[in-house]
From TrEMBL:
The gene is ilvE. Belongs to the class-IV pyridoxal-phosphate-dependent aminotransferase family. GO terms for biological process: amino acid biosynthetic process; branched-chain amino acid biosynthetic process. Pathway: Amino-acid biosynthesis; L-isoleucine biosynthesis; L-isoleucine from 2-oxobutanoate: step 4/4; Amino-acid biosynthesis; L-leucine biosynthesis; L-leucine from 3-methyl-2-oxobutanoate: step 4/4; Amino-acid biosynthesis; L-valine biosynthesis; L-valine from pyruvate: step 4/4. InterPro entries: Aminotrans_IV, Aminotrans_IV_CS, Aminotransferase-like, B_amino_transI, BCAT-like_C, BCAT-like_N, BCAT_family, Class-IV_PLP-Dep_Aminotrnsfr. This is Branched-chain-amino-acid aminotransferase.
Amino acid sequence: MSAIPFDQLDGQIWFNGEFIPWRDAKIHVLTHGLHYASAVFEGERAYGGEIFKLREHTERLIESGRILGFTLPYSAEEIDTACSELLRRQGFSDAYVRPIAWRGSESMGVSAQKNRINVAIAIWQWPSYFNPEERMKGIRLDLAEYRRPDPRTAPSRAKASGLYMICTISKHAAEAKGYADALMLDWRGQVAEATGANVFFVKDGAIHTPTPDCFLDGITRRTVIELARRRGIEVNVRAIMPEELSDFSECFLCGTAAEVTPVAEIGPYRFAPGEISRQLVSDYMAEVTPKRIAAE
Ligand SMILES: Cc1ncc(COP(=O)(O)O)c(C=O)c1O
């Protein structure tokens, strides 16, 4: 990642329908989204000049806004076109794509019924979340203190900015202890996910992953389940208790940013990145590679 602060990079940002210079993409300090977390966003990756599962991400962005009570003022087609055109203008082949929608400054109370819904898209280069060498060795996870909330407490199906407050706190606490990330339990004490990625386990050649009933049902998660089933690997989507962690031989995380990343440790539990993790790391990379490149 660049040492230059993100507001000082160069290029263009798509901002409410226009391509503007990167450094001019500013908002006022009195913005509802900043004070009350009335914002939703997406994280996408482009491989070989194509954004992987762009339409699914765009639809989730629109749905996240709907869950927070607002309608994005652009159609899925318009957002997709803006993302693809911005990728072309930025001149990147492999990159990270960040669309965001937020309530503006028209009023500054809890109620913000008439605030403008703003939408922006930025694209930057973001190599692997965890460095490649560390990836196959498996990363180390702490057990987070915060839990994913009950869906009656927070809109857990939305990729909403406010839900990331406990993720940043948990990730910082893990990093302070030398871990790469943290595994979060849910409000019932079941295994949920990491701070920005879903989690999978392997036992006796079968995959086990938690039911996404109070955390994000990741697009990568769904892709990995499909890839595993294509290989004939059994996938069990079910409630997983932390006491079971000692029964699993392999563990990996998956998400747009994390891709498929093996895990070697979660608190006191140890895993050995093995055949199934290796297979899915490689199947996922093949799946995200545009067909025209794979054919070369
Ligand atoms: C908290 C959280 N869970 C899971 C995921 C995985 O979602 P996706 O695969 O759609 O990127 C993400 C985002 O990448 C996330 O931030």
